Amino acid sequence: MRIYRTPDSVFDGLAGWDFAPHYTALPAGLRVHYVDEGPSDGQIVLMLHGEPTWGYLYRHMIRPVSDAGFRVLVPDLIGFGRSDKPLGRGAHSYAGQVAWMSQWVEALDLRNIILVCQDWGSLIGLRLLALMPDRFAGVALANGGLPEGQAAPRAFAIWRNFARYSPIFPIGGIVNQGCKRTLSAAEIAAYDAPFPTRASKVGPRAYPALVPLGPNIAVPDQQAAWRVLEQYEKPFLCCFSDGDPITRGGERAFIGRVPGTKDMPHHALHGGHFIQEDDPTGFAQAISMVAEAGRHRST
Question: Which one of the listed residues 119, 221, 278, 279 is annotated catalytic?
Fold first, then answer.
């Protein structure tokens, strides 16, 4: 497998990003980068980013959550950020990404995990939970889902076509358009930093077409994951944003269907698709709500 590895130098001095890098090598030889902050014996909070971002998305949440006593882990998905980037669209698949990240979870032997996820982070994270439910203690879900062949919303169909056919793919600019606040030039540059060449963007360009909206090879795997979620009784909190045209109202797919949603304080966060930029405090507070619900249910 041919890979692209972004030079370390491009990550020096990024706005708001001074976290030490950590790496895990997967069986296929691919290297996963992750942030690891907070006490080593703290409950694990796994923050999964989506498309076309990287772990930088969670920079405003990492220290407040780790300062609250949690061990915060923020991996870059394969193909994104500081992790290795397989070259060629055919090297990327939904099942492949789930397999890579499950290998990473197993390599670190992570347990008692609160999953924090948005966008593709939810598509991958909820599949991980379905594969290894005993490793997860709860979920805080914003602006994501686990689609199983539904028709694509118009806004998403436009995005999917743009990712596939546009001659330019300005990742920082795309993230900026998905926020309610305006990112600074330095923040936009930081989102661009891991993708300095056209070839390095193959992952971000590939994943919109892999979302199982409409006929898709992943639908049976999604349905199998839903069967696990339909029995999942640990705390499951929905905190979708009030200003995302693609996922607004997505909590309706989970509340009631997932037993763990019962009696949880589901609420709206304020912002656009990339809620980690618009309302990081609200999203961080949702993590504490999940942890508290877990302690209450265990007594």
Answer: 119
In degrees, rounded to 5, the angle at the alpha carbon of residue 61 between the alpha carbons of residues 60 and 63 is 95
Q: Which of 36, 221, 244, 279 is catalytic?
A: 244
CATH code of the domain covering residue 52: 3.40.50.1820
Q: Indicate if 279 belongs to the active site.
A: no
* pLDDT tens column, 207-240: 999 999 999 999 999 999 999 999 999 999 999 9
pTM of the model as a whole:
0.97
Return the sign of the alpha-carbon dihedral for residues 290, 106, 276, 261.
negative
The yes-or-no answer on residue 67 being catalytic is: no
Q: How many domains does the chain divide into? A: 1
Over residues 4-34, the pLDDT tens digits come to 999 999 999 999 999 999 999 999 899 999 9
From 76, 84, 273, 279, active-site residue: 273
Domain of residue 85 covers 3-298
**In degrees rounded to 5, what are phi and psi of residue 281?**
-65, -45
Paired residues of 45 in beta bridges: 72, 114
Residue 267 falls in the annotated catalytic set? no
Task: Decide the pairing of beta strands 44-48 and 113-117.
Answer: parallel
